[in-house]
Amino acid sequence: MKSEHERDVASPRSGYEAMARLIGHGPTAVLAASDNLAIGAMQFLLEQKRSIPGDVSVMGFDDLDIAAHPMLRLSTVAFDFYELGVLGARTLLDALQEKSDVPRVQLSPYRLVLRDTVRTL
């Protein structure tokens, strides 16, 4: 069993715990760093009888397969992680071969996937 410090910081449990700490501040929207964190946050909100997206909009990153599940329908930001890895490797190899600095900013294509967890304003 993992200790508190060894726990996966991107797990649904971590998202649940973060939402439990955040809820007292009255958030109307949460942008989680991953779909797993968003799923945990949604679990907490549903247990607290909060409406998603009525009370709190929730969005994640990754577009995991589970995010499209009919019972979940999580809004998310989709990245092509393979292409992101290729871009990172090319950048590093170019920097090593040309003895140049690695660019400070790189833009990677993404796609906004709006499903049922974000309220229209």
Model description:
The chain is an alpha/beta fold and 121 residues long. The chain has a domain of 68 residues: Response regulator (Rossmann fold). Helices cover 35% and strands 14% of the residues. The protein contains three helices and four strands, in the order αβαββαβ. Strands 1-2-3-4 form a four-stranded mixed sheet. α2 links the parallel β1 and β2. α1 packs across α2. The longest helix has 18 residues. The protein is elongated and about 55 Å long. It starts with 11 loop residues before the first helix and ends in an 8-residue tail after the last strand. The mean pLDDT is 89.
How do the helices and strands line up, and which of them pair or pack?
Layout: H1 12-22, E1 29-31, H2 35-47, E2 57-61, E3 75-79, H3 81-98, E4 110-113
Parallel strand pairs: 1-2, 2-3
Antiparallel strand pairs: 3-4
Helix pairs in contact: 1-2
The SSE string, one letter per element, is HEHEEHE
Arrangement of strands in the largest sheet: 1-2-3-4
CA(first)-CA(last) distance? 43 Å
Report the biggest beta sheet as strand number plus sense, adding barrel if it closes. 4 strands, mixed
Here the CATH topology of the domain at 12-79 equals Rossmann fold
**Which structural class is indicated by helix and strand composition?**
alpha/beta
What's the helix count?
A: 3
Rg value: 18 Å
Strand content: 5-15%
* Architecture (CATH level 2) name of the domain at 12-79: 3-Layer(aba) Sandwich
Q: Which stretches are poorly predicted, pLDDT < 50 over at least 5 residues?
A: none
What is the CATH C-level name of the domain at 12-79?
Alpha Beta
